[in-house]
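Support reply, case 0932

Customer input (verbatim):
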Amino acid sequence: MRTLLIVNPNATSTTPATRDLLAHALESRTQLTVAHTQHRGHAAELAQWASTNEMDLIVVHGGDGTVNETINGFLPLPELNDGQAWLPRLGVIPGGSANVFARALGISPDPVTATNQLIDLLTLDRDRKIGLGIADDRWFTFSAGVGLDADVCEAIDASRAAGHTATPSRYIRTTVRQFFRNKRKEPSVRIEIPGHKPIEDVHYAFVTNATPWTFLNSTPVHTNPGTTFETGLGVFAVRSMAVVPTLLLARQLLATDGNPKSRNLFRDDDVPSVRVEAAAPIGLQIDGDFIGKRNMVDFTAVPEVLEVVAPRPS
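Our regenerated output:
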């Protein structure tokens, strides 16, 4: 088995000791090539190289952004897929701050435990085929969104660029600050979903490919508990930013058996596609990375498109 290990040395929780352990474990079982990312977009370039050279497995040790780049580097979009591209399997060893994709797959957030999981699954030759989402002609693994969470991601990206670590407390502070900034704005988003009437006057919306939507330390946050890698997309669209309804909704999101409901909320956990339109350009985030502002974004579910080395769903 020929394996490329992509390491983001600047990811929040990667360490030289963990990198060495992972490399040693893979080297004992595969023909291993190790590459460290050096700039934004480098993981995509490395993944494309691995596909071109028909490597069997790509293992990513980094955060959700590095995983997203990797997938977009080797997995062709449906309209560009002629069936000829070589598609390696994907393994993930968490190395970021939230590691939502890996944890949603059932991979341990602890890199050492996750390494042992990966080796065990490779020994058993057990893989799993999952669906992904597409937004703005880009794959996403667990979440995309417009409005509030995109603004939070933009602010966090700016904070990281200034040398600040993306901690859960920083996310909470940033979310509160952006919430009160956005609260003064009129709702400008319209959402169209096959089989539904248009949803008007939306402040912000999340489109998910799995649950949970994110984590606060070890606490999962569930927006669409019925959405999985084996279903369509989840839609979570909020039509009010009044403080009391927002606090009540937040409490439901953090509940162990979270199943959020509100008269100000539109939610569907299994849709094939979503179109989001905004009267003025609105922020878009994909897997936690701010992409830019858009007037319209189409989201599409693509089933069973990626082979991952991960536990199978119970």
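We compared this against your earlier run and they match. Two observations from our side: Residues 168-182 form the longest helix (15 residues). The two ends are 28 Å apart (CA to CA). Please reopen the case if you see a mismatch on your end.
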